[in-house]
Amino acid sequence: MERHINTIGVLTSGGDAPGMNAAIRAVVRSARAHDINVIGVMRGYFGLIEKEFIKLTSSSVSNTIQRGGTILKTARCTAFLTSEGRKKAYDNMVEAGIDALVVIGGNGSLTGAQLFAREYDLPIIGLPGTIDNDLYGTDSTIGYDTALNTIVDCVDKIRDTANSHDRIFFIEVMGRDAGFLAQNSAIASGAEAAIIPEGKTDVDQLAEFIERGKRKSKNSAIVLVSEAQKDGVGGALYYADRIQKEYPQFDARVTILGHLQRGGSPTAYDRILASRMGYAAIEALMEGQRNVMIGIKNDEIVYVPISRAIKMDKPINKELISVLNVLSM
Ligand code: ATP
Predict the structure, then answer these.
(1) Contacts for 89 with CB less than 8 Å, ≥ 6 apart
(2) Is the pTM of this model over 0.90?
């Protein structure tokens, strides 16, 4: 049944990502252009359950497009995993007159959105907000480009010290289930190798790559490692330790970039992506779309059923693996 939308809620959930503020701004201003009221929900699903609502106007989002983090705060909310928690969230939405919800977050947040929308027949639009770039149906997620640039900046700095001491650096980056950050930052920083969850890493082959790099003009080497760990295998510490034990001629060091990858002012690319997606979220609601994630494919806005966005694996382009292998020779 088609329903008129007077008021929408917007929230950010899961890990924060640079560009979330640009997305909130775009949602608020596009909604206001259609005379739709906007309620900001603080701290993701937690705020929905605890009724942490604030009224958002066009001026509430002034001076936010360039800011990292999220002005609505974010949280991981275990209560939303329960049907009682979601019932409370729904009752609060009804009480506040919220007719539809825009959820900005990663895979987990959209999984919650999908369940909620099914249980309560609610129009929900998802925006892919995660630095991991692991959502199916969109070429890029909000925050990925900024995180990638931050990593490359750090690797450039580490390269200076790696060179000065003839060291091998294992640099761990985020991406538990997806290697986009590790693979692409390795290409962009001229690293010797990337260890990603989508690939199999053979330590002898890794040693060969490092040796190859050292034989060239370089006396140091950089290996980008996704944080992914399975049964105690994986992560920069694990690989550095193995290399050091099996190839004691290498002087291996580890840097874990951690949360600095999430911070900082969004790149122009992420600001534009977030602005287009936030605008598209309201257009989608106006068209009567529901339970879709906004994606961008080949520079065109697409509506991806949330069920597909969260269930399908986003494959890493195999060409990227060949590019790194050939160019690091
Ligand atoms: P990131 O990609 O940065 O990790 P994310 O959105 O995947 O972000 P999660 O911690 O997985 O982050 O999920 C955020 C929140 O979404 C959870 O704290 C929970 O409130 C909700 N959520 C996740 N999975 C479910 C689920 N199966 N059912 C209901 N709610 C869920």
Answers:
(1) 45, 48, 49, 80, 116
(2) yes
